[in-house]
Amino acid sequence: MIIRKANDVLKICEKENIPIWEVAVRYEMAESGLSRQEIVEKMGSNFLHMKASINAGLNERQDGVECKMFKDDAKKIMKYRETNKPLSGYVISKAVAYALSVMEINCSMGRVVAAPTAGASGVLPATIVSTLETLELGDDVGVNGLFTAGLVGIIIGKNASLSGAIGGCQAEIGSAAAMGAATAVEISGGTPKMAFDAAAIAIKSMMGLVCDPVAGLVEVPCAKRNGMGTSNALVAADMALAGISSVIPFDEVVMAMHKVGRSMPGSLKETAEGGVAVTPTGLRLKKEIFGE
């Protein structure tokens, strides 16, 4: 099975009347040589780790290594939504809390699932779990959703990049948002075309996003970008499910993202030499943390 672009996937989906996640399972079976059961079990384990990282950041005390520049932001969002009427709504505010929770586990050296990277690891779990809870669906649907997300990520990786050092943060948070948006659409019963439309909308909304980590750590602005990437994914999914198409096809959007990433100066691609990393506050924090 040869898959390089979204158009390849859409042709298979249309010809065999199957969802993206089924194409992804068959693709993985062909590439890995593993059985369907083995592959599904491995993905199921990933899903459980994602849920565990959400729960840990929200409910468990983090001992040992802690984030240097933020703490308990996920808990703050959850408390806020319980005592106020959140402007972004109860679903999105909860999803943002989930994303921040995963990022707190990440920067505390806990276990997360890189999806597609550790720096973007909060977007996909938050998007999937919040969607499942909203629609009252089970974990098995979430596992299928991870296959959809994985195939979207593979296509981006083959035609652009998933690395902030190569393509800027658009390649990490932008890709994660695209993966989450496509997954949310399929979980919600949308068509494969709708899923890729949502993915395209998500990437377009984050195209050009630079990677400028303060003190070189995956904390600021990374954690909050996970929250924004999650909200982006959910809004993009709603647009697609409403029947709004991406005027520019997903494959062409990925091509554009790749070109934008190549055009970025090195100072804006994970070097901590540009953007908010070199603001007065950013430099002060670096000195406080590392004594430099």
Describe this entry's structure for a reader.
With 292 residues, the protein is an all-alpha fold. The chain has a single domain, classed as 2-methylcitrate dehydratase PrpD. It is built from 13 helices and no strands. Helix 6 runs antiparallel to helix 7. The protein is globular. The N and C termini lie far apart (52 Å). The mean pLDDT is 96.
Stretches with pLDDT under 50, minimum 5 residues: none
Assigned CATH architecture? Orthogonal Bundle
Number of domains: 1
Specify the CATH class.
Answer: Mainly Alpha
The span between the termini is: 52 Å
Radius of gyration (CA) equals 18 Å
Tell me the helix content: 55-70%
Overall shape: globular
**Count the strands?**
0
Quote the average pLDDT. Answer: 96
CATH topology: 2-methylcitrate dehydratase PrpD
Largest sheet: none
Strand content: under 5%
> How many H/I helical runs?
13
Q: Secondary-structure element sequence?
A: HHHHHHHHHHHHH
| Class derived from helix and strand content | mainly alpha
Features:
65% helix; 13 helices; 2-methylcitrate dehydratase PrpD; 0% strand; 292 residues; mainly alpha
In short:
The chain has 292 residues and is an all-alpha fold.
Note the topology.
Blueprint: H1 6-16, H2 20-32, H3 36-59, H4 73-83, H5 90-107, H6 123-135, H7 139-159, H8 164-167, H9 173-187, H10 192-206, H11 222-241, H12 250-263, H13 280-290
